[in-house]
């Protein structure tokens, strides 16, 4: 069973202090028990699930919303201070107490619920129970506070470790960045030198190509000039040869003229007689000697 204990002040006597304990099983909407005490007298009562449904129907409010309003009025305590009013009226013998709770509005208030509480025969036992509940709650809160304190210390220690690790990571990151930057500079300089060399080679290749083209052009020009000169010389030789050929007679003519200009053919007998006549004076001269 869950319980809550709140301190309330009735509208009729704001200086008076009452302690209201609300206990329920699973959900406030299934019903709850009330215990009201001013440390001298005590009253108790029960609100059933049917009572809750009836009160919600009377004020024409959705049941779930009505249960939420009850939670804020009876359980929230200081969180809802000033938003809800409590009305407490006791009879002369304090045998019974009429307790009602209302929701404040701008123009007034409307009642959420009310019930008649019966006097508890032994108020001291009730006060004892309330004090025990307060001590138990205080012990739970203290244990929770200690647990939260230890958890906070653990988280602070983890945070310190994480902070130190983060600092180391930052230092390592900076060192790595510096190393990478130095390596990058070296690589960049090498690439720049390589690019300059390539540009130099490219310019030299372009110059060589231009020179080769100029040489080819000059050779072609020279060849063209030589060819033109050869053609001119050939044409001149042909012109000089043509008059010489024209002055020479033809082969039959040359043969005819050679035949005409040659001496007459002698008879073989005449040739022998001529040789003999020429040989005799030679022989005679030898004998005389």
From TrEMBL:
Coiled-coil residue windows: 138-215
Cross-referenced CDD domains: HD_XRCC4_N
Entry keyword set: Chromosome, Coiled coil, Cytoplasm, DNA damage, DNA recombination, DNA repair, DNA-binding, Isopeptide bond, Nucleus, Phosphoprotein, Ubl conjugation
All copies of domain XRCC4 N-terminal, residue ranges: 17-118
Gene Ontology, cellular component aspect: chromosome; cytoplasm; DNA ligase IV complex; DNA-dependent protein kinase-DNA ligase 4 complex
Localization, UniProt: Chromosome; Cytoplasm; Nucleus
Renumbered residue ranges of the record's region Disordered: 231-289
Gene Ontology terms describing biological process: double-strand break repair via nonhomologous end joining; immunoglobulin V(D)J recombination; response to X-ray
GO molecular function: DNA binding
Signal peptide: none
Stored Pfam families: XRCC4, XRCC4_C, XRCC4_CC
Sequence ranges assigned to domain XRCC4 C-terminal in this UniProt record: 227-289
Domain of life the protein comes from: Eukaryota
Domain XRCC4 coiled-coil per the UniProt entry, residue ranges: 122-198
Main location, first listed in the record: nucleus
PANTHER family tied to this protein: DNA REPAIR PROTEIN XRCC4
Function noted in UniProt: Acts as an activator of the phospholipid scramblase activity of XKR4. This form, which is generated upon caspase-3 (CASP3) cleavage, translocates into the cytoplasm and interacts with XKR4, thereby promoting phosphatidylserine scramblase activity of XKR4 and leading to phosphatidylserine exposure on apoptotic cell surface.
Subunit structure: Interacts with XKR4; interacts with the processed form of XKR4, which is cleaved by caspase.
Membership in a protein family: Belongs to the XRCC4-XLF family. XRCC4 subfamily.
Name of this chain's protein: DNA repair protein XRCC4
Organism name: Corvus brachyrhynchos (American crow)
Lineage, broadest ranks: Eukaryota, Metazoa, Chordata, Craniata, Vertebrata
């Amino acid at each position: 069973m869950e319980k809550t204990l709140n301190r309330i002040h009735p509208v009729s006597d704001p200086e008076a202090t009452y302690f209201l304990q609300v206990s329920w099983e699973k959900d406030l909407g299934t019903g709850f028990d009330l215990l009201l005490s001013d440390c001298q007298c005590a009253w108790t009562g029960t609100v059933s699930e049917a009572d809750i449904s009836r009160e919600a129907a009377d004020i024409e409010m959705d049941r779930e919303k009505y249960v939420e309003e009850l939670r804020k009025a009876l359980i929230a305590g200081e969180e809802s201070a000033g938003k809800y009013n409590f009305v407490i009226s006791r009879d002369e013998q304090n045998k019974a107490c009429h307790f009602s709770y209302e929701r404040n509005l701008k123009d007034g208030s409307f009642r959420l619920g009310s019930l008649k509480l019966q006097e508890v025969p032994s108020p001291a036992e009730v006060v004892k129970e309330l004090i025990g509940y307060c001590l138990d709650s205080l012990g739970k809160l203290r244990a929770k506070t200690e647990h939260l304190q230890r958890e906070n210390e653990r988280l602070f220690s983890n945070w310190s470790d994480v902070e130190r690790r983060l600092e180391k990571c930052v230092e390592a990151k900076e060192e790595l960045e510096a190393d990478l930057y130095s390596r990058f500079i070296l690589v960049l300089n090498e690439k720049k030198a390589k690019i300059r060399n390539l540009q130099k080679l490219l310019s030299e290749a372009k110059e060589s190509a231009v020179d080769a083209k100029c040489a080819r052009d000059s050779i072609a020009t020279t060849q063209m000039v030589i060819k033109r000169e050869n053609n001119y010389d050939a044409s001149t030789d042909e012109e000089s040869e043509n008059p010489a050929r024209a002055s020479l007679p033809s082969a039959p003519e040359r043969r005819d003229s050679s035949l005409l200009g040659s001496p007459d053919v002698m008879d073989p007998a005449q040739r022998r007689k001529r040789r003999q006549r020429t040989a005799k004076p030679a022989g005679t001269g030898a004998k005389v000697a």
